[in-house]
Design brief:
The protein is α/β, with parallel strands linked by helices. It folds into two domains: 173 residues, Rossmann fold (3-Layer(aba) Sandwich), CATH 3.40.50.620; 89 residues, Pantoate-beta-alanine ligase, C-terminal domain (Pantoate--beta-alanine Ligase, Chain: A,domain 2, 2-Layer Sandwich). Helix content is 39%, strand content 20%. It is built from ten helices and ten strands. Strand 7 and strand 8 form a beta hairpin. The structure holds pantoate (PAF).
Length: 280
Amino acid sequence: MIIFKTTENLREYLKDKPASQGVVGFVPTMGALHRGHLSLVNLCRQQNTLTVVSIFVNPLQFNQKSDFDNYPSTIEKDMEMLIGAGVDVLFLPSEKEMYPDENKKVTYDLGYLDQILEGAQRPGHFQGVARVVDLLLQIVQPDNLYLGQKDFQQIKVIQRMIKLKGHHTKVVEAPLVREESGLAMSSRNERLSGTGRKKAAIIYKNLKTIKEEINEFPFSSLRKKAIDDLRKNGFKVDYIELATQKDLKLLNDFDNKIPSRVLVAAWIESVRLIDNIPIP
Ligand code: PAF
């Protein structure tokens, strides 16, 4: 695995790469890697001749400084994992490298995506995500970009940014990976205590119940039941919503003809967790 810390050197390398490495796949990450990231890397390796991964904890996408300060960092372990997974190139830029001053002040017309769910709860978050991924795509210019469905809304935001900016990159979505308990894999799980981690699995249990019962009961009553259960178990719930799978339009109730998703964000032990499940 070759490691690049500067944009210039990475650009130079990618420009001169051998013809045998014609199809470039890219997995952007913020490190603290887990099996969810590895599933993206594996998919990327199967579908491309060159796999590029980036690790950059992007300050622009944190709407709370404490979340940024507490974001787990396990860089040595991450690098071992990426070497073991057969990654060709790791891009490891500093903040200065990613954001020389003029790079910061750009906004994107993300439309309603910026105003619902994560957009409503975390002002500025998706602008930060769009900015860093736009810059990374300009540098790496991959054919394929790999994103996990745990951050379902993020996929829609990045697809919109790609369209707005005319990047020639195809987004490949990979299914969410869960721990044995059902808890969605996330770097933030590292911040939970043993008890917190066990409790966090209750989020998925509630999503499954909603999925099982959605043809029988109105979504509003299933949501209320889930919120009550989560609160009883010590969670603070930001939202549980039903939305269309294709363009993430919020729905009041489930319509069998429209592929949908239930999305949730909830706090436990001061850690904010998100999850979602396809319906049906
Ligand atoms: O999903 C993430 O880890 C981040 O939002 C991403 C896409 C790497 C951008 O910083």
